[in-house]
Specification:
alpha/beta; Rossmann fold; GMP Synthetase, Chain A, domain 3; 14 helices; about 25% strand
């Protein structure tokens, strides 16, 4: 097995340097160009004083240059932190401060987030490099270097001191306290999954894989490194196509994709608009999804139209690296209410269903889903308390010292020996593939001066939306705060996918017998539209 992620494309760069590695919007970057550009970037980063273990934020849209940045940072023995460029500057600032990054590799057509970040005054020194073919139009900063400077640097390989247990990247997810938490992912974590997937899916250099997920979303980790490991082509889906189902279908056709991998929400959207003809996408060999439940009716829709493709459900939280279990459907379900299992553990992993005392539950009984094995993250970046709470051990297992990750998901083992996901029992939800802590939304709400109290709940909306975020709030005395104004205020603190879809103002939030906010009652209010104090 390769020891470091940046080693994966080196073989293809030597044997097939002129073959495309990254394709996007009519642009192609070959394996030879990818290797040379990332080597040059590593040289430049080291020349500017970056040292082993430094965290480097990458704030740029999905692009070949972003992948060059990832590899260049790794070759400089550093750790990259992909940041959503659509996030509000306040949230970006929290991530930068949390990972203590002194550098940002940036790019794209809109530098307003960076301008706002600099205006608000980052903590400590912060240097910015512009790794983008677009000209830098930032008003508050001057880049330390730009993409044109790479051409002046040597393109030979660099000796690396890192080992496979070293952090490759830190992925920030929603945090219940209002501060995003950083999940540390090592080279080995990713490599183990990629090696398993290459064997199981029989991936090879003739593959043309989709790159649909945003680069700060852990599904993109497989898109990138699964492709580079096999010398295949990664066709990066422009984000503007995400809500254009007909355009997405045409993208799959024209790119002649052999693999599609995404959260189910985009597949639901495409099914709703019936954009795939029977026997469509003839080159597509496999369709994979992960991140949330794929409704069985939509799955049946796809399987009937693409009988030539294999359909695989992958399951796994960010803390367990991309996916920890898999289930390839042997045939199209006959019943629209049939439950689709999350299946069996990937090689080197184990799924366990345990009770409240961390004892194994018998088959058929609901319990808490835990994961053990090679995919487990070392923990949360500089947060030993959260790490200790999420990564535990059980004296009731054959190996009582083994680390387990508590997913917070409910599950059971079926009579067929497969694992079935049964939902969540806490305030964390999945919406359009994003993992969201409702507590982070409440924290942002509570920071609004015109809000006296609030509660955020999620309801099952069915259809495309699946889970809908709803906000109940009590305006401060004398305030005429409207849902429209409140939503606009929250835009400065939360990404768009975390903004509530439904709002309701109350004179006082309903309480249960314990004097706590009655969230069950609030769910009923949003589900029925009726409220009787």
């Amino acid at each position: 097995m390769n020891e470091l992620l940046q080693h994966l494309p080196a073989d293809a760069a030597q044997r097939r340097p002129d073959e495309p590695a990254l394709v996007m919007g009519g642009r192609r970057l070959t394996y030879g160009e990818l290797e040379s550009a990332s080597n040059r970037l590593a040289f430049l980063l080291r020349a500017h004083g970056l040292h082993r273990g430094d965290r480097v934020a990458v704030l740029m849209p999905k692009s070949p240059e972003a992948v060059v940045s990832f590899l260049g940072i790794l070759k400089a023995d550093c750790t990259y932190v992909p940041v959503d460029p659509a996030s509000p500057p306040a949230r970006v600032a929290k991530i930068i401060a949390s990972c203590q990054s002194r550098w940002i590799l940036a790019g794209g057509k809109d530098p307003s987030t960076l301008d706002k970040l600099i205006e608000d005054g980052p903590r400590g020194p912060l240097r910015i490099a512009w790794i983008s073919p677009e000209p830098c139009l930032g008003k508050t900063f001057v880049p330390a270097f730009g993409i044109d400077d790479l051409e002046l640097c040597p393109d030979g390989p660099h000796p690396c001191r890192n080992t496979s247990d070293y952090p490759a990247h830190i992925l920030f997810t929603s945090g219940s306290t209002g501060t995003p938490k950083g999940v540390v992912i090592t080279h080995a974590n990713v490599l183990h999954f990629v090696e398993w997937a290459m064997r199981y899916f029989k991936m090879g250099p003739s593959d043309r894989n989709s790159g649909h997920s945003p680069l700060h979303f852990d599904l993109s980790t497989f898109d990138i490194y699964g492709t580079l490991a096999t010398g295949a082509q990664l066709h990066m889906v422009p984000p503007e196509l995400n809500f254009l189902p007909n355009k997405l279908a045409e993208f799959i056709r024209s790119s002649e994709l052999t693999q599609w991998f995404s959260a189910p929400s985009v597949l639901n959207l495409m099914a709703k608009f019936d954009v795939a003809r029977p026997g469509d996408f003839p080159t597509l060999k496999r369709l994979l999804w992960c991140g949330e439940v794929f409704p069985t009716p939509a799955l049946i829709h796809w399987m009937k139209r693409l009988p030539h493709a294999k359909f695989t459900n992958l399951y796994g939280p960010t803390e367990a690296t991309i996916a920890s279990s898999y289930y390839t459907l042997p045939h199209c379900p006959q019943n629209e209410r049939a439950a689709i299992p999350i299946g069996s553990a990937c090689a080197g992993e184990a799924l366990l269903v345990l009770d409240d005392d961390l004892r194994p539950t018998p088959p058929g009984q609901t319990g808490w889903l835990y994961i053990r094995g090679v995919g487990l993250s070392p923990g949360y970046w500089q947060d030993p308390e959260k790490t200790a709470a999420a990564f535990v051990s059980s004296p009731h297992l054959p190996d009582p010292a083994a680390r387990l990750y508590k997913t917070g998901d409910l599950a059971k083992i079926g009579d067929d020996g497969l694992f079935y996901y049964l939902g969540r029992a806490d305030s964390q939800i999945k919406c359009r593939g994003h993992r969201i802590e409702l507590g982070e939304i409440e924290a942002a709400m509570n920071a609004v001066a015109q809000v006296r109290e609030c509660a955020v709940v999620a309801i099952d909306a069915g259809g495309l939306e699946g889970t809908m975020i709803c906000c109940a709030y009590v305006p401060a005395a004398g305030s005429s705060l409207t849902p429209v104004a409140l939503r606009e205020t929250l835009r400065a603190a939360l990404p768009a996918y975390m903004l509530p879809a439904r709002w309701k103002a109350f004179d006082g939030l309903p309480q249960n017998a314990n004097g706590k906010t009655d969230r069950k009652k609030l769910k009923e209010v949003f589900e029925t539209g009726r409220y009787e104090p």
